[in-house]
## 1
Amino acid sequence: MVVRRLRARLKGWGGVGAMAAACALALIFALALTRAAPVGPRATPAGQPVSHAAGTDAAEDCDAPEKQTLSPSDADGRTIEEIKNRKGEKRKLIVGVDQNSYRWGYRDPNGGESGTLEGFDIDLVHRIAEDILGDRDAVQFKAIPTDQRIPAIQAGRVDMVVRTMTINCDRIKDVAFSAPYFKTGQQVLAPKSAPIEGYDETLADQEICTATGSTAYAKLEADKKAGRLPESTGIGTTVPNQLDCLVRLQLGEVDAVVTDGALAASQAAQDPTVELKGEAFTTEYYGVAMRKDADDMVRRVNRILVDFREDADGWQASYTKWLSATLKGDPSRSEPPAPEYLREN
């Protein structure tokens, strides 16, 4: 049985009570935003030989989900034309993002214009908006909880989601992804004083927190059933937003967090009393998620990503600005391999 400990660690971040309250308000705000009106239906551009909407068989036989994407193109199809035809203040790219993932998509309370989102994912969103609409600031950001990313896309509440979203075989049945733009893997985050050493037998009798609908929870659930995780490990604590796990950890309600190593490193940078335990135990890739029938948008984003990785002020510059201090390693470990696309007849 997991022993609940209110650790004397409430000094982190200058008061966990305040942080918990802030996260609660952020969650309420995010849930309210996700109920906004749809941005309208999407149609598959004519003349495309390969379509995600018609490519369900590829998803069923999936063994490399990061390769199940369409080749790059500059062409404006119906999806992009609908966005360009929005009138006045509504002529913006509507993007689901996070607002509380440090260095990825967050509001810096210590600087910058009030209410301005910033981070690696936000840089990518601005690049996409600049290419499609000619204005990097022509973006309407919508804060989307982890478990609402796919529903928000399917309901048409956003044009895309750029939110540290892992490409996997289950998800490509429901949404289309761009080529990968970041490489990561699942890791364990726990207090420095904890006896946990990594994703191993030291997780016995420990309670682990994950985000609802995350790849972390899916991995824990599968490993628990297969006996690869100690039977006494608790995996029942799930939260709408990943940062809520860090608050649970600080309050002593859980013993460890499992999430993408890139996010875990950012959380460790926020609280010096916690650290990554062990190495990453999966290999995963982040991608931009879009509707399955938005083929022209997928192709356009893939072309933008090619430029983003090659430009001097693109991927490398953004990594250096936002992530080099937290990941503390060779950036080539985080850069995805050269993209591969679906074969087209």
## 2
Amino acid sequence: MKAKKVIAISLTAVMMLGLLSGCKKEDAKDKQASGSGSEMTIEIVAKGFQHDFWQAVLAGSKKAEEEFNVKTNFVGPEGEGAIATQVEQINNAINKKPSAICLAALDTNAALDAISQAQSQGIAIIGFDSGVPGAPEGAVKANAATDNYAAGELAAEKMYEAIKDKVTNPTDVVRIGVVSQEANSDSIIKRTSGFIDKMSSLIGENNSCVEGHDKYNRKSDGAKVIIEVRIPAEVTDNAGKTEALTLLNKEDLVAIYGSNEFAAKCIINANEGLNKLGEGKVIAVGFDSGALQIDAIKNKIFYGSVTQDPVSIGYNAVRLAVAAAKGEKVEDVDTGCQWYNSENYDASDIAPCLYQ
């Protein structure tokens, strides 16, 4: 009888230990899901790392890291043409088995295998900046990004205000130049398309045509306004500057648009020694910011530019990733864009969006 009592007590003790152990495991699991400790990790794979834009996105991600008490790791290739390098970085991120991944894909098709692998492992992906266009259904839970098409439209609207008299029923052919970094990135494509479509609409479809690149070409017989798109063969300062020079050296050029920081810098550098940009000259409109572009705007060499909010992009990407890792429903966030020029670049609602 006494032996049976001892056995019963022992069994009870074992069961209690098992319950306590189970509770501890469940607590740890809950802690990881809630992101209340260092167990929640977010891998962030950007399209680049060197440009000031990505450093501003990084700053936003660090702000969210601190607020939500999670661990983040931010990587990106040195240049935005290094697709293979980025795919390797995505695979490395997956191998770390993070709670979620934030991704701004250079080429979704090149990364499809990696994206599918993350999806099969139940790793939530949050797109940011240009996101992950064309990803398998359900792989990307939400995006934190600028509405790039609308941002391109805004650039066209502001430029049109300055050149309206020159492009309304001109006697001779006039030209609007567009420098685009490349023709693969969804964000660049949309900013370029938004600009072209809006400008064509403002001028009149029959009064304008688009040439220079097969992706955007549109003929219109007898059109007096030519929108010429130039895209460098490689994403280097010299190649971009060459394309900008080609446009600036055309006598019929009345305006020029650069669809990101790289393109705007190429236009500014090409203008050195030519002195063709500014008030009463060729009207230049840019995108993003950076010290060189801000200085060109302060000195009225550039008419103005459209800025995203890169800090908000980084912050919201991580915020959405934390929520998705918890299994919460998440939705796209439009991180917005604004127009700035020599009159408002230091305004309280603009200055925080501009990186040096």
## 3
Amino acid sequence: MSWRDVFINELRRLFSNPAVVFTVFGGIIIYSLLYPLPYANQLPRELHIAIVDHDQSQQSRTFIRMLDATPQVQVVKQLESETESSPYFASAEIEGVVTIPQHFYRDLLLGKSPVVSVGGDASFFLTYGTIVEGVVATGSTLGAQVKVQRALMHDTPMPLAAQQYAPFSLNAVPVFNPTTGYGDYVVPGVFMLILQQTLLIASGMLGISTGSAHAAQETARNNKSLWARTAVLTGIYCIMAMYYLGASLSLNGVNQMAEPLQLAAVMLPFLLATIGLGSLIGIAIKRAEIITLIVLLSSMPLLFIAGFVWPSSALPTWLNVVAQFAPSTVVIQATLQLNQMGADFHSQLGHLTQLWLQATAYLGLAFYLKGKANRAA
């Protein structure tokens, strides 16, 4: 078969397979639209809480108004006791309850530190942490006001009173993730994993050997079909990668700092390595539905060992070693450092070398096994 016939045959095999077409085109587009939606607001805001005020003083009411004014929480109920909050938690009407102790105002006047209790469902750690953040911010502000007022009562000038309370000011500037939300660091990394998993499924399905007669006809006892499949999938996924790293990130307001050529230099060996790994899966597994199942089941473990959702230093050593065999682990680190952190391209030479080694190893082994199968046929 001529090269032209081989390419046409591979294109026909791809576009005549509904599962592959839906995975490559439908899966990529659907994931890019649906996955970022839960992170659209970046951080939880205006969480509903209930207040149990055992003090019923002017200062406790001031504390409640200040708490309600924070962006983190919204006071929706005032209860007589903490036990009354249980049905509201069960019905999801509130996410937390804040208890103001008795003698709250008196303790503030005496210079003591009253204990404000916060209750919530800690299984939603981000929700619980946001409620605590709002309470702490309110308490710190109210405490500052009380201390300054007490200093003024002792004829201390206002500038000196403020300086005595806060001898230094904190200017916190978050780097790499200005919103301190999930979207800016989770979405770009997961997009790379989605590219890998869909490409593994497509390459694996197209690489399934269907018998000696078909293998002989398809490859003419050589690896032309694998070359053609690699070129076709690389071309298609270069466009998909441009969409994921460009338009899709822009639509979701994600920070982008890398030059397109830098990202292209990283994506090329990543795509080749993934195609080679997918081809090996197709050679080893003869059923398309099993390939899809295995790839999908591996998605969550690969996500957590990639080193951006959960730190690599907190993983067992053997898991870190296993993670280095997945192209997604390397490309996620490389693209995040280039595109979200503004790293210099020369700092990614180690990642680039690792991706090219993976591409050479996986594709080389796929060509070898394919040729061996053809000779056996």
## 4
Amino acid sequence: MTPTLVRHHRHTEPSAPADGASRARDWAEIQERMLAPLYEAVYARLEVGPATRMLALGCGSGLALLMAAGRGARVTGVDADPDRLALARARLLPASGDRGATAAPRLTDTVAAAAEGGPHNLITAFTPIGCEAGDGEELVRALETAVPSADRGSTVVLTGWGPPERCATEAVLRVAGRLADDGRAPGGGWRGPRRDDLEDVAFRAGLKPDGSGRVACPFGYADMDSAVRGLLSTRLFEAAVRATDRWQVEKELAEALHPHRRPDGTVWMSNVFRYLVCTV
């Protein structure tokens, strides 16, 4: 499965700050689909289906939930971003009346509230860790709250970026870290993955690793504007924007993307993502 290229109209004022709702729409319409091959590979390996009761940490605007629900799974999603969560509700809840015997999706903004909907037998964390300083610690805290809602022997899936030499986007994302560091912005920027990030989180959360895999997830965009907007929607550039300004971040991001622009104007970067399957 490869990303679908969707063309979007270019902003007339690229330096204007984007609000949370705009970033969430860019995430849902441009960027979220880039990880669809990862979702599908994990679901196929774990045979996600009607017997699955899934809790998705950081569910975003709901694409991974939608794909699991399409397999018949009972899904619960949690995300702290109210704008992304609103899009997830719009995607998932209107169709719940046609789900027959399958329970309607549950969507909430706190892990504690999501855990109350247990027991779950699959917990997913599809937001790749190893991107920012502290993201592993944040995931450990979320797992400490979520895992007690799972049956013993249930599965937890953690995800992260693959080796830097196999991820073309990694060099582009360094712009976030450099601009944040130059401006001494609090909150950090792109840190870059480390080989044992996933195992470290699993160990600290009391999980038992039970296999892993790698999935190719190329990032493909219809044009440079879509590429810039999609990457900005990941929230990895927020510290850089605070340290400088949005115009400067967009300019340097476009420059970093230039080597990946094809003659037809599309932007294409090959990436590999890694997932770790754990048991509770």
